[in-house]
């Protein structure tokens, strides 16, 4: 298992080539599609590195949702400034040489630094792996990654949900609500897409529920499930577009904060039973983690859907969008 | 060369391509893309470091760190893309875009001659 086999070399070469091609290709759309392919190959690489949780997250979030965000933004930019995503960038011969020098020089510098620092790490002490595998039995989840994320590093994960909310607040500051306009008319191809989404949403929601449940023992968990919900939401938006003010609608804000609220309440309840804040042990741990995961999944799914909407649809100028500069 | 070594080198290469691209390209969307490649390079490096020879299984701690990182990266990307879109949609920058567009066209035309 320690020596790389053919597939490892193919994956490594493919990743480097796709990254280079994605950044250098003239058409941005091609670049983003290459980025999505890169993400899918990346998730195979995660499997080879024995990180199936990351493979799921990479396929759903790293390549899926991120790719959708990029495609939405490109479509929107092409509407506001036509030609901006297909215009070739101009580089002088000196700049082209600088690129090669930059890539070669930085690779060499980091390689030398890495070859000095990394070998002692790879052969060094096992770090936290042993304590984690001992503590997993009482942590309420047999999948060590889920146990770390929700229990041992609960603080980080709670604040990660806060980061999602912060990103969303930033987006709200930058642009107002989407308004009542039906942005995409549901005709022709879009009618087919609409039917497809109606067909797909229930299996999607079921899949998200399965990912939450299975995340305790096997690869999966709140983030993968949340990305699943976000994907269903984004597809729904693409098929129909918002028909009512999307961001300020009733129920949006309670669901947005549900994940953080569940984390806080569960954390406080663990103080009540004699533990520390966000410390779950014993028989109640599994139930508490499950509650946290369900509410976090709802929050993550909604935030990702809203972030996709914000990237894809320009705000309706009539509906309290921030002023477009003083001179217009 | 071990599997960990191969993926460490891959992560390094992807990071370098992203880092150089971030500063080299002028298109903002492409810079956001480069930032994502940088992040993925770091993630790959971090997880490959978890394949230590002293433990028989993959270290789950970097997996959890990277899972957090992936979600933070998607939040950053979304905020960044909305910023870029708003930047291009404001009136002043629209005219700046047009000038740059013309400049780019003449330069590209000059390059072809």
Structural write-up:
The complex is a heterodimer of chains A (328) and B (113). Chain A is mainly alpha-helical and 328 residues long. Chain A is 70% helix and 0% strand. Chain A is globular, with a radius of gyration of 23 Å. Chain A starts with 5 loop residues before the first helix and ends in a 16-residue tail after the last helix. Chain B has 113 residues and is an all-alpha fold. In chain B, helix 1 packs antiparallel against helix 2 (28-49) and helix 2 (28-49) runs antiparallel to helix 3 (60-89). Chains A and B meet through helix 1, helix 2, helix 3, helix 4 and helix 5 of A and helix 1, helix 2, helix 3 and helix 4 of B.
Per-chain topology:
The complex is a heterodimer of chains A (328) and B (113).
Chain A (H helix, E strand, L loop, with lengths): L5 H19 L3 H21 L3 H29 L12 H31 L5 H7 L8 H9 L1 H21 L14 H26 L7 H19 L11 H21 L12 H28 L16
Chain B lengths: L2 H22 L3 H22 L10 H30 L1 H22 L1
Condensed summary:
The complex is a heterodimer of chains A (328) and B (113). Chain A is an all-alpha fold. Chain A is built from 11 helices and no strands.
Structural class of chain A: mainly alpha
Tally of DSSP helical segments of chain B = 4
**End-to-end C-alpha gap of chain A:** 63 Å
Extract low-pLDDT stretches of chain B: 108-113
What share of the residues of chain B does DSSP label as strand, in percent?
under 5%
What oligomeric state is this? heterodimer
Q: Please state the overall shape of chain A, judged from the principal axes of the Cα atoms.
A: globular
Overall pLDDT level of chain B? 83
Order of helices and strands of chain B: HHHH
Largest sheet of chain B: none
What percent of the residues of chain B sit in helical stretches (DSSP H or I)?
over 70%
